[in-house]
Amino acid sequence: MRIAMVSVVANPLTEGTGQEAHVRELSAALCGLGHEVTVYTRRAATRSADRFRTDEKYEVVQVPVGPAKPISDDELVAHLGEFAKFLAEEWRLSSPDVAHSHHWESGLAALVSAHRVQVPVVHSHHGLGPSDNEERADAERLLARRASWTVATSMQEVTQLMQLGVHRTQTTVVPPGVNLELFEPEGPVAARGSLRRVVSVGRLEPGSGLATAVAALSVVDGIELVIAGEKTQANPVAQQLRRLARQLGVLDRIVFAGAVPHAKMPALLRSADVVVCTPRSDPFGLAALEAMGCGVPVIAAAVGALADVITHNVSGLHIPTNDARALARSLRSLLTNDTKRQELGVAAHDRVSARYSRDRLAKEALAVYQRVEPEHGSE
């Protein structure tokens, strides 16, 4: 099957634990199953090839629309027409069997392009926008009506989509998958000092929940917090976290690791006693899944995909959102109980192996593509 992945903003060639990683792992696994995958994303850097074949055999096409630099969503909307035109011209020459679009900007571009060449569109919303963003809300309602099928990443998202008007019978849950050959308990371990180590991985942005982890650190002695996932230079959230840590007297126990390469992330995760994921929302849960693949227990807010990924007190611990006291209590309970921590780590690895391997989830996505493919073939 020939599959077009449309991910306008999130480029799978970049590091990240969100949509970039989801598209990357899904595309790689589909190629591993013998299918042909091309990812279409917007070129956001001057020194990048327009077309790139990855080691895992999927092709990335970096569409040259708009300035070759990161831009805001408002700026991006003005270039979606150009992006859709590029896709339509590309697909007229060689039509995919199905297009899978990720997030609302990609969905709009894919719908316009696919209509011109009669390609079915499977869409993943990856979370719905705030009600006061009328442009995005209109786009999401359109996608709910017009996409051939909707793929959600969690049951919480299914509920949100039903409220939007997406029929449950037209929705399939396909959570993100993990490369279990990379994220496994055995392997290199990053160097660490004498303190117990807590790791948090994710974007440094409002809603990351990292202030909760910093506040918890101030009432739990003998631990360090390693924050990884994004460059900290000139990042306003990183600056806020440093100010908070300085006020609480824990700046000397925080390590800003920056953007850790994907290949080195398992070693960092294996060095952790506990991994903490406390965002306000998380449609993917990939940071938790990768830690669980490494056999490391996770404490997470019960939001988005994290509510599905972790079974409380079996494969990890759930805490309320933005509750530093609850996080501190959970940290103490695990860091003072080696047996409990090891039990959770083993159960976490078993859960990821049984449900979240990228190969299994690629097969589930493929079943969705095959469901809508007859629409294409009958035209």
UniProtKB/TrEMBL annotation:
Sorted UniProt keywords: Glycosyltransferase, Transferase
Molecular-function annotations in GO: transferase activity
Gene3D superfamilies attached to this UniProt entry: Glycogen Phosphorylase B
Domain Glycosyltransferase subfamily 4-like N-terminal: 18-181
InterPro entries per UniProt: Glyco_trans_1, Glyco_trans_4-like_N, Glycosyltransferase_grp1
Protein name: Glycosyl transferase
Keyword Ion transport in annotation: no
Residues in coiled coil: none
Glycosyl transferase family domain mapped to chain residues: 196-348
The organism's place on the tree of life at top rank: Bacteria
UniProt key word Electron transport: no
